Amino acid sequence: MPGNSFGQLFRISTWGESHGGGVGVVIDGCPPKIALSENDIQPDLDRRRPGQSSIVTPRKEADHCSILSGVFRGRTLGTPILIWVPNTDARPEAYREMKTMFRPSHADFTYQAKFGIRNWEGGGRSSARETIGRVAAAAVAKKVFHHLAPEIEVIAWVRQVQRISIEFDPLKVSLAQVERTPIRCPDPKTAARMIRLIEKARASGDSLGGVIECVARGTPAGLGEPVFDRFEADLAKAMLSLPATKGFEVGSGFAGTRLFGSEHNDPFALRQGHIRTASNRSGGIQGGITNGEPILFRVAFKPTATIAKPQKTVTVSGRAATLQARGRHDPCVLPRAVPIVEAMTWLVLIDHWLRLRAQCGTPMRRRHAKRS
User: Fold this and answer.
1) 304: part of which helix (H) or strand (E)?
2) Average pLDDT of 29-48?
3) Sign of CA dihedral 216, 218, 222, 223
4) Cα 47 to chain center, whole Å?
5) Which of 39, 223, 291, 299 has its CA 20 to 30 A from that of 200?
6) DSSP for residue 168
């Protein structure tokens, strides 16, 4: 089955190309009678859109969305929801050289190898513009949770740009802290250093990568399926399906490999009548199922593949060539990737929440055993 869909009970299918008529998503499985309008979706698209600051791509897209089906008089019908966002600032002529040359570290060669044809205008489906559909679908998922489980919240932030990094308490980080700087790093001093580094890289025609950290708080225990649809497995698939991602870790991640089991284990304790863990090195997931603690993970993003410096490559016939990139690109994808990481987290949460409800009943609030 073509890989343009994600989820089982809350299933999304994204469509469209970077420089075509528009992009969007079809959502199947949204519960009925949920209040929904374009105004619920637009704020999240605004956080993702280009042209927000001097450290992202200057492409000017308003990214205004339209709901074309699945909603009647402001409420979801339970039928497929189609959301469309037109492309208004496409410049396919900037990619004319890519018609005959493969861009280094892009999907040009692999798409050609697989399909025997490709959209060379901005990369087509491989462009990060495809993620608009994911963000729009996640806004719908958030509305479902607002109606059924308002205590759940998801916040992501830039933890690292190249070698500049921060340690920030995932229990205390707020959306306001993340959004007060254009880099979306909750520490202002570190954010300023990151911005200077990105501006320096951009001025030299280069790019940077880094790490985004994300926490989901207020989640119930019981989300996730044994054995193959483990919660962290679906979370990893969601994150690694994003453009430019190169790594994923949950909880202690790779750092946990340096600990003894006696140091790494999360002891259980009874607090306020609920079974809790004293630490959270598991990142809120044990045995592939959420345990009710905050879900904490990190995603690594490579430096943006398109840079302003000349790069060696080959033509479609295999002849050596030099490519001078054109077009408008992010010198660092991290600031705009933050809401996309949040979006994919919401989509994993809603799908597993609906699956748990279907099999075991409503997975609301804390499902831990209480003292009898």
Assistant:
1) none
2) 97
3) negative
4) 12
5) 299
6) -
The overall pTM is greater than 0.90:
yes
- The whole-number pLDDT of residue 54 equals 78
Whole-number pLDDT of residue 18: 87
Q: Which of 282, 229, 273 is nearest to 252 (CA)?
A: 282
Rounded Cα gap, residues 299 and 245, in angstroms? 7
Percent of the chain scored above 90 by pLDDT? 81
Mean pLDDT value across the chain: 92
C-alpha distance from residue 298 to each of 46, 74, 172, 206 (Å) = 23, 36, 17, 24
CB under 8 Å to 315, separation ≥6 — which residues? 100, 101, 102, 321
The three-state secondary structure class of 154 is strand
Q: What distance in Å separates the CA atoms of residue 270 and residue 274, rounded to the nearest whole number?
A: 5
State how far Cα 315 lies from the chain centre: 33
Residue-range domains of the chain with CATH: 5-360 (3.60.150.10)
Q: What tokens appear for 300 in the block?
A: 């690594």
> Quick one: tokens of 348?
């994993």
Query: At residue 169, does pLDDT exceed 90?
Result: yes
Three-class SS state of 84: strand
Per-residue pLDDT band for 124 (boundaries 50, 70, 90) equals confident
Adjacent-strand bridge partners of 312 = 322
Reading the block at residue 279, the tokens are 């630490």
Q: What is the pLDDT of residues 288-302, one digit of tens each?
A: 999 999 999 999 999
Contact 157, 37 (CB under 8 A): no
**Which residue reads 């302003």 in tokens?**
308
CB 369: neighbour CB atoms within 10 A? 11
Residue 172 makes CB contacts below 8 A (sequence gap 6+) with: none
**Model pLDDT, residue 371:** 40
Residue 12, token pair as written in the block: 């999304």
Q: Give the Cα separation of 101 and 162 in Å (integer).
A: 29
